[in-house]
């Protein structure tokens, strides 16, 4: 999505004869979104990507919502949930609506199978841990603070070099940079909070020429299916296009500041259908002597606001901890906790770090996180 990339060996013209050194005709494979009119890439395989030995249903995936329909601010202590398991099979649902489903996973092992999400694009925020995302397009090394953008149907698996914590946002639409950051040609403009230099595309790896049985778990139709291919799926000789997984570190996001308080859209990092994702990063405070750095009270009209705190230091909140997640729904105003506005006056900077996603349709809370809820959070604005 960000820009044109070419890796490995490709023919001079698309849809033309392309052979291996031994004379074998190499299968061409178009991968893209919106059928034939969205962004796409062409991959060249050693073997047809269609050769499947077996297919079987593994399990269904159902999101169960909390029965509580009261409108109130909510707080969840997510890092108190159990650790361990698979990066893709042990995700714990957090919140969801028609456009996005958020989950948290704290894996301690790599998977021995590949994975393809065929019903959603994924944005994975790596809170802790490091490793390599192995894909058909090449390898993406990742570490703490990285966003991984994994377009729908990209075959991949995580090779962890340490236990990790990951926030996963599965989206019905596709992730892109906000349009106001790009010029008419698609290039990131001067003044945008990050540029193409900050975006990491996959590193090319030689094709894996192996026959055998290679399992791939596919998420589609609200279920996970296990297929077995007769060859290794990463048999790519070369590829080019705009459709590929990519990474961006939250530490490469450059916050904009001004004389007076800037609104949350300046922190926007990604756009999608029905929601946006923002990065709150260390930055100088507003520098006018009369400025009030703390955000003003606001009603999220037509929007639910979710904040995932990657630092205990967040200037407008009290009582949160590393790994907290708050939900401030449409219908109830919210703002700084008592004392936070006064304390912000005269302060020079903040070291806060958080990921926010704002949805334009109401979110439901999943039952799976009710055990770590701070049930009195909605009372925390009382000045006691």
Helix content: under 10%
Enumerate the strands of the largest sheet in spatial order, edge to edge or round the barrel.
18-12-9-14-7-6-26
Span from first to last CA?
50 Å
Helical stretch tally: 1
Q: How many whole angstroms does the radius of gyration measure?
A: 22 Å
CATH architecture of the domain at 254-379: Sandwich
Order of helices and strands: EEEEEEEEEEEEEEEEEEEEEEEHEEE
CATH class of the domain at 254-379: Mainly Beta
- Which range does the strand content fall in? 35-45%
Please identify the structural class as seen in this structure: mainly beta
Task: Classify the oligomer.
Answer: single chain
- The parts where pLDDT drops under 50 for at least 5 residues are none
For the largest beta-sheet, the strand count, sense and barrel status come to:
7 strands, antiparallel
Net shape = globular
CATH topology grouping of the domain at 254-379: Jelly Rolls
Q: How many E strands? A: 26
CATH superfamily heading of the domain at 254-379: Jelly Rolls
In round numbers, the mean pLDDT is: 95
Structure report:
The protein is an all-beta fold and 384 residues long. It has a domain at 254-379: Jelly Rolls (Sandwich), CATH 2.60.120. It contains 1 helix and 26 strands. The chain has one helix at residues 340-344, and strands spanning 5-8, 28-32, 40-45, 52-60, 74-77, 92-96, 100-105, 114-117, 121-128, 131-135, 138-142, 146-150, 156-160, 165-171, 211-220, 223-231, 236-241, 246-249, 268-272, 275-280, 283-284, 304-309, 324-328, 349-350, 354-359, 364-365. The strands form 6 sheets. A 7-stranded antiparallel β-sheet has the order 18-12-9-14-7-6-26, with no helix packed on it. Strands 5-23-22-25-20-19 form a 6-stranded antiparallel β-sheet, with no helix packed on it. A hairpin with a 7-residue loop joins strand 2 and strand 3 (40-45). The chain is globular.
